[in-house]
Write a structure and sequence with these properties.
Number of helices: 20
Radius of gyration: 38 Å
Largest sheet: 5 strands, antiparallel
Number of domains: 5
Structural class: alpha+beta
Length: about 675
């Protein structure tokens, strides 16, 4: 829980005849992070597997054919299930034969459906345009004019007067019809010699021409009747064909979905082999696997490979590529259900490295503690819990956020009991701890205590990380052991003064000399470390002068010490937002009393309180969450989190990744 899942590097060699069955087992096993063969010692030797291009091309064609049939039937495709028991080399024959039979029946009907839908869309569009024209307008008369040009279209109603004024110098006729969305239907007529002037005026007036179907003759009313009849006939045909489509959907829809899923899974399994290697007639697969699954995977592979299997397991510490940093060990989190949702927030800051302390547990517990301190209320906590529970039960996609909301609601309700607050009412429950607004100085001390604890924990984790990652130069720096001791001395001195109101002279003198010694040590330790590394031949870095190194050390130390102070003071915001939460309740109750006195209704008071609580939950809940994340990232994670790790990519996620996004 405090470190990532222990992984082992596995290398599997199987004959080409067994690769399909082996790939299927790996897909079912899931927790295998494939390593590109290029990143292993075999990569430079050219032992990269080739994908069967012809088979892959056939899969692409079959998938396109199934997608076309699904589109014709208006059936959505199912999500890819890579754990299906499919073997790419065999699956193609089964699907090819079955798909040919389905295509023959569905495509014959589908061509008719598309034709009717296209005709219906065109007729409806023509009908909509004709309905804008005056019913008595004779289209035949317009088409038979030889000396006059004409145009029908839409002009903004507000611009009609301007259009008439711009055409005052030429002979013209502007006939206004109905209106459509603040636009007027106009028929413009003018002599052919004057038509360029009319066209410019129409353009300036934002004229939108109506393109009518060719071949229309006679009055508009007659054409409307004919088109309406044609639309009704096509709609009747569409209903008949919709019933036919529903019949085919029920008969073949589910099977097409299953075929699409199996084809996609088989194609993805085929594509996964691009990470494999090949030596003569054997495939080589390399990847990271949780150490606890080694025996199970080996047994499953031996069963399908008929004993023709070479299975090698190596611990990460024994790999030269890992020690030299050529290959990163991926991170597979290992947290219980109530903690794992916070992994998303941890990885927003960065992915921890393999030997680094995995901080999700500390993040989750401190996040909930800070949220509860700032948002303590039994009623509002219960509302958050119920919202989170609803998401947890109804939306698998947002399951993690539902769990986080439930936990935040629980801690908000817990601190609400400690504060004695239920929807802002402080007369329902007694305060088991204290009331924030009545104990402001105590609340500030609590917030600072939490801040000092988190910063101290960050410093301790930084020391642990420095030892685990063998970054010993960071062990004694300003954020290492020496800086931690200096910080704790300052905190101890401040606590002594707050408790007793005085500090003895000998205490100041002792702490002063110890501070000087620690600062001098931190200043000289870096150049001494660099000199030692160069003396041992462990680094080829350019030599830095002692004066420059000491000056950089002084600047860095004072910057870190100032950050210690700023980070600690920053936790006062916990008290500030806890007080703001209470103050918002006071404001809501004040507004509710004023409105209730003016209207004389108790219902107004209750509605105002309810609305105020909704606003506080939405507004204050969002702000408190943001501030909590900020404190975690900058004040806590900044002390120890190095990041730069690589996420674990399970085999089933590798298969779901679109080919275009793969490296």
């Amino acid at each position: 829980m405090f470190k990532a899942e222990k992984l082992s590097r596995v290398t599997i060699q199987v004959p080409e005849a067994a690769i399909a069955a082996v790939t299927k087992v790996l897909a079912q096993f899931r927790l295998l992070h494939l390593i590109r063969i290029d990143e292993t010692p075999l990569g430079p030797l050219g032992y990269r597997a080739e994908i069967d291009g012809e088979l892959l091309e056939e899969y692409e064609g079959l998938l396109q054919a199934i997608q076309k049939l699904l589109s014709l039937l208006q059936v959505p495709a199912l999500e890819v299930a890579p754990d299906l028991e499919v073997i790419p080399e065999k699956e193609v024959f089964r699907v090819r034969e079955e798909l040919a039979q389905l295509q023959q029946e569905i495509e014959a009907a589908g061509g008719s459906w598309q034709g009717v839908e296209q005709q219906l869309a065109e007729k409806r569009q023509f009908l909509e345009k004709l309905q804008l024209l005056p019913a008595e307008l004779d289209l035949s008369a317009l088409t038979q004019m030889h000396l006059v040009n004409w145009a029908i279209g839409l002009v903004p109603t507000a611009g009609l007067d301007k259009l008439e004024a711009s055409l005052a110098a030429v002979h013209h006729v502007i006939l206004e019809g109905g209106q459509h969305q603040q636009q007027s239907v106009v028929l413009a007529l003018a002599l052919k010699k004057d038509w360029p002037v009319v066209e410019r005026a129409l353009t300036a007036a934002l004229f939108e021409p109506l393109t009518l179907p060719q071949g229309l003759t006679g009055p508009v009313a007659d054409n409307l009747a004919a088109l309406a009849t044609a639309v009704a006939d096509l709609e009747a045909r569409q209903q008949e064909e919709a019933e036919q489509r529903r019949t085919l959907q029920q008969r073949y829809g589910r099977r097409l979905q299953e075929l699409a899923g199996r084809l996609t899974a088989a194609r993805q399994l085929l594509l996964a082999r691009r990470l494999f290697g090949k030596v003569d007639s054997s495939f080589i697969i390399s990847g990271w696997l949780p150490a606890r699954l080694l025996d199970d995977l080996k047994a499953a592979l031996e069963q399908v490979a008929d004993g023709q299997l070479l299975f090698e397991q190596v611990n990460p510490e024994d790999l030269r590529e890992v020690r030299t940093g050529i290959i990163q060990i991926p991170i597979l989190f290992n947290n219980p259900l109530l903690i794992s949702p916070f992994e998303k927030l941890t990885t927003l800051y960065g992915w921890p490295r393999y030997r680094e302390v995995e901080p999700t547990v500390f993040f989750a517990l401190s996040f909930l503690l800070l949220f509860g301190l700032m948002f303590g209320d039994v009623g509002q906590g219960a509302v958050l819990f119920l919202i989170g529970y609803g998401i947890f039960r109804r939306s698998y996609r947002y399951l993690d956020y539902g769990i986080i909301l439930m936990e935040c609601g629980f801690f908000a309700a817990l601190f609400g009991v400690l504060y004695g607050s239920v929807f802002g009412l402080e007369t329902v429950l007694p305060a088991l701890w204290f009331r924030p607004m009545e104990n402001i100085s105590y609340l500030i001390r609590v917030a600072l205590t939490v801040g000092v604890t988190l910063i101290s924990l960050g410093l301790i984790l930084n020391i642990i990380n420095a030892i685990r990652l063998r970054e010993y130069e960071k062990l004694f720096g300003a954020s290492g052991l020496a800086g931690a001791i200096l910080y704790w001395l300052g905190v101890g001195l401040a606590v002594k003064y707050l408790i007793s109101g005085r500090v003895e002279a000998w205490e100041l003198q002792a702490i002063g000399w110890l501070t000087v010694a620690l600062v001098v040590f931190m200043v000289v330790q870096r150049p001494l470390w660099q000199w030692w590394q160069q003396h041992q031949g462990r680094t080829a870095a350019a030599k830095i002068g002692w004066g420059t190194a000491i000056l950089e050390g002084i600047i860095e130390i004072f910057n870190d010490l100032l950050q210690f102070i700023a980070n600690t003071v920053s936790f006062i915001r916990v008290a500030a937002f806890a007080l703001a939460h209470t103050a918002l309740f006071i404001a809501v109750f004040s507004v509710a009393r004023v409105l209730s006195r003016e209207s004389g209704q108790g219902l107004t008071y209750l509605l105002t309180i309810a609305l105020g609580n909704v606003i506080i939950i939405l507004l204050e809940g969002l702000i408190v969450s943001i501030q909590t994340v900020r404190l975690e990232y900058y004040e806590f994670f900044g002390k120890f989190f190095r990041g730069g790790g690589e996420p674990f990519q399970p085999f089933d996620q590798e298969l779901r990744q679109p080919p275009a996004e793969r490296p």
